[in-house]
Amino acid sequence: MCSRVNKNGTFVGLTRGSYYIPYDVNTRSGQPLANDLRAALLGGFERKGVPAQGAEAGATAASKPDALLLAVSVHEWKSEAAIGEILTYSLRAELIDEAGQRLATAQARGSDRVYDHGQAGQSALASLLAQPTLVRAFGGEVEIDTAQNEPAQDAPVRKAAAELFIPRLGRDGVY
């Protein structure tokens, strides 16, 4: 039997101290993780020269005919640190037009070593946006998504637990 502990919106993971006791880690900004991820996505689009603006929470369609709504759901996001660090994530994105028609759906899941938290988060978001269905839809090759009622994969991502025990000084192979 598995129990799921709900954390507040700023929770991003755990760090383990002496005796492997876990302590919560929260966003540096103090804002909910969803706000930080939204800002990261908007900043990424801006840096690429793609006009983007945030939508209201719960939006179900793009705001105007020449726009698309990118709805990103975070099913799992947890960093864990002991001697080494990992980030486990499960994300889902839907690209929706002004009529509320879902044009593309993509998922990204992983459990990776973390050397830089900003880079790890960027890589997780990039892996989601690089999914072929989204790339085609963003590029104008719109195909109506036939898997609209496909449930998100809610099963937990298999965590790379062994990564927690790689000494920080030895990550590059030098002890």
Would you write up a description of this structure?
The chain has 175 residues and is α+β, with helices and mostly antiparallel strands. The chain has three helices and five strands, in the order ββαβββαα. It has a five-stranded mixed β-sheet. Strand 1 and strand 2 form a beta hairpin. The protein is elongated, with a radius of gyration of 18 Å. The N and C termini lie far apart (40 Å).
Assembly state of the chains shown: single chain
Mean pLDDT: 80
**How much helix, percentage-wise, in residues?**
10-25%
Radius of gyration: 18 Å
Class computed from helices, strands and strand pairing: alpha+beta
Report the end-to-end length measured between terminal Cα atoms. 40 Å
Secondary-structure blueprint of this entry?
Elements: E1 11-16, E2 22-26, H1 33-47, E3 69-81, E4 85-96, E5 102-113, H2 117-129, H3 132-138
Parallel strand pairs: 1-3
Antiparallel strand pairs: 1-2, 3-4, 4-5
Key features?
single chain, 175 residues, alpha+beta, five-stranded mixed β-sheet, 5 strands, elongated
